[in-house]
Amino acid sequence: xxxxxxxxxxxxxxxxxxxxxxxxxxxxxxxxxxxxxxxxxxxxxxxxxxxxxxxxxxxxxxxxxxxxxxxxxxxxxxxxxxxxxxxxxxxxxxxxxxxxxxxxxxxxxxxxxxxxxxxxxxxxxxxxxxxxxxxxxxxxxxxxxxxxxxxxxxxxxxxxxxxxxxxxxxxxxxxxxxxxxxxxxxxxxxxxxxxxxxxxxxxxxxxxxxxxxxxxxxxxxxxxxxxxxxxxxxxxxxxxxxxxxxxxxxxxxxxxxxxxxxxxxxxxxxxxxxxxxxxxxxxxxxxxxxxxxxxxxxxxxxxxxxxxxxxxxxxxxxxxxxxxxxxxxxxxxxxxxxxxxxxxxxxxxxxxxxxxxxxxxxxxxxxxxxxxxxxxxxxxxxxxxxxxxxxxxxxxxxxxxxxxxxxxxxxxxxxxxxxxxxxxxxxxxxxxxxxxxxxxxxxxxxxxxxxxxxxxxxxxxx
Length: 462
Known about the structure:
Blueprint: H1 13-21, E1 44-46, E2 52-55, H2 58-61, H3 70-76, H4 79-86, H5 97-110, E3 117-121, H6 124-146, H7 158-165, E4 173-177, H8 186-190, H9 196-199, E5 209-210, H10 223-243, E6 248-253, H11 267-279, E7 283-287, E8 313-316, E9 323-327, H12 347-362, H13 365-386, E10 392-397, E11 400-404, H14 408-420, E12 423-424, E13 426-428, E14 432-435, H15 443-460
Parallel strand pairs: 2-12, 4-5, 4-6, 6-7, 7-8
Antiparallel strand pairs: 1-2, 3-9, 8-9, 10-11, 11-14, 13-14
Helix pairs in contact: 3-12, 5-12, 10-11, 13-15
C-alpha cells in the first residue's frame, strides 16, 4: 500500500515551529523534516504536519528495521533495558550479565569470520579511531622488538619517554584512499579525503593518500577500463608503501566508498590491497561503519570480497547502534590502559544491537535486501538508459545504491522534487543521489520509488 502524502511546502508549519524552538542546536539549519516519532511506521516516515514519506534516506544508513519495529519497541520498553539505562557502568571494570551475554552471542553468531575479539565505543568514527590506535600499538611494539628493545612502553629510556609525551615519538603513518570517509575525529579525519569541508582549517597527520579506482558502471560494459584503473591504483599503493617502508602501521579502505560518492572496486582489488598491506607489515583495516549489518545483502560486506584471510581489523557502527571494531587475535590489545574508555560498551545500545541482529535472522532480511536491491538497481539502470543525458552510473550492491546527475545542483533538485512527491533520498559525492533503504524495504516499496524517480526524471528531462 502506497501511504505517501505530501501537501504544501516543506517544512510545514508545525515542523517549522519545532525547528525554530531548537535554534540553540548548532545544526538546526540543516533540517527540513521533523519526524512524528509516534506515527512513523516501517519504511513510512511521518512528519509533524502529517506528511508521509517513503524513507530511502535511512539517516545515512543508521536505520535498520524501519520506524517503531515491534521487536525494538519491546526491547526498549523492557525492565532489562530500563535497568541498563538507570545503572550505567564503566564496562571494562564493572558490567552486568546482559553485556556478557551480548558479547558471547556476537562471537557465536554475528562476528565476521576469523575475528578473535571485539572492542566497543559509542559511534562509528570513534570505532575507526580506536582501530587505528590498535594498529599503531601493534606496529610500534613490533618495531621495538625488531630493534632489540622491549615492546613495553614503560621500559623505554627517559629520552624516548619524553619524546612520546611531547608528541615526537613516531613517524608511523596510515595509508588511505582518495574519496575515503572514515570519520570526523582528528585521527580518522587524517584518513578522510572525500570533501574539503570535512578538512579545511583542521590539523591532520601527514599520511599518504593513493587513488581509488571508482569503477564505472555497468560493470560488464566497462571491464577493460575498470581493470586498467584498478591496476593503476595498485601501482600507486605499492609506491606509497615503498616510500614509507617500515613506517606503515595500517592501510584502511571501505568495501564501498560511501560518503565519497558510492564508489566501487572489484574483489580482486581488495585482495591485492590486503596482500600489499601484509607484505609491508601493515594492518589491513576494513571500514564497515556504513556497509555492515546487512546493508550489502550480507551481514558484513567483507563476505563479498573473497579475501584469502580475514582483515586484521574491521570497524563497525551505524546499524550496530554503537561503534567499535573486530580484530584478529594478533591485534587484540590486552594490556591494561592501552585501549580503554570509561564506557567501552553501552548496555542499552547492546540490547538494541542484539535485537537488530536477531530480527535480521528471524525475518530473513538479508535475502530481502538482495532481492529488493536487485530490483531497485535494475530499475535505476532502465531509467539511466531512458534518460542518458540526465541520469547515469546506476550502481549498487544490496541497499548500497546510487546514481549520478550532471551537476550537484541537478542532483539537489532531483532530490527536492522526489521529496515533494513523498520519497526521501539523499546525496553523496559531488553529484550523486544515494539510497540507503531500511532493511525492511520490500519490492512493492521499490516499485513506488522507481515510479516517482521516473516522474521526476521525465519532468527534468522534458
